[in-house]
Amino acid sequence: MPLKTIRLELARTADHPEGSAEHGYEFMAPLTADGHLDQEEWRSHKSACTVRRFWRGEDEQTGHLVHRGRGWLFDYDSDDSDDDEPIFRFDRHTLVEGEYISITEHDGVQRPFRVASVR
Questions:
Q1: Given 35, 73, 106, 110, which residue has the most CB atoms within 10 angstroms?
Q2: What CA–CA distance (Å, rounded) separates 76 from 65?
Q3: Do 114 and 18 meet the contact criterion of CB atoms below 8 Å apart?
C-alpha cells in the first residue's frame, strides 16, 4: 500500500478568521480505502511516516507520525515527550479533503485544521 501525503491547513480561529494556508502540517501515512489511518501498514512503514510542521514566522519542524497507547501524535524528538502533539480521535477521522482535525500543539493549545489535500 503506497503512503499518502496529507496536507492539513489551519482552519478558522479567532486569530485567523479565514483559516491559513501558511500554518499547518504535511505528513506521510498509509490510509485504508475509506480514508482512515491504517495502523497495520503504519507498523511496517514507521520510518517513512514523517511530518513537517510549517508555521509562518517560525522554523519548520520535522518528525514522525507515531501511534502510542490508544492514540496518534506527531513527535519531533523521540527522546522528549514535551514536543509531542496529540491528535484528537485521529483513529476515527477520515482523511479526505474538507474534513477537520483537532491537534493539541506543543504549546498546549488545541487548534482546528482542515484536510487541504490527500495525494
A1: 73
A2: 9
A3: no
Cβ count within 10 A of residue 106: 17
User: Do 64 and 49 meet the contact criterion of CB atoms below 8 Å apart?
Assistant: yes
Neighbours of 42 (CB within 10 A): 19
Query: H or E element: which one contains 42?
Result: helix 39-44
Grid cell listed for 61: 519542524
Q: How many domains does the chain have?
A: 1
Tell me: the pLDDT tens digits for 4-50?
999 999 999 999 999 999 999 999 999 999 999 999 999 999 999 99
Residues whose CB is less than 8 angstroms from the CB of residue 17 and which lie 6 or more positions away in sequence, other chains included:
none
Query: What DSSP designation does 39 have?
Result: H
Amino acid 94 reads: T
C-alpha 74/C-alpha 24 separation (Å) is 12
> pLDDT tens for residues 98-107?
999 999 887 8
Question: Domain range holding 15?
Answer: 4-118
The Cα 16–Cα 88 span in angstroms is: 21
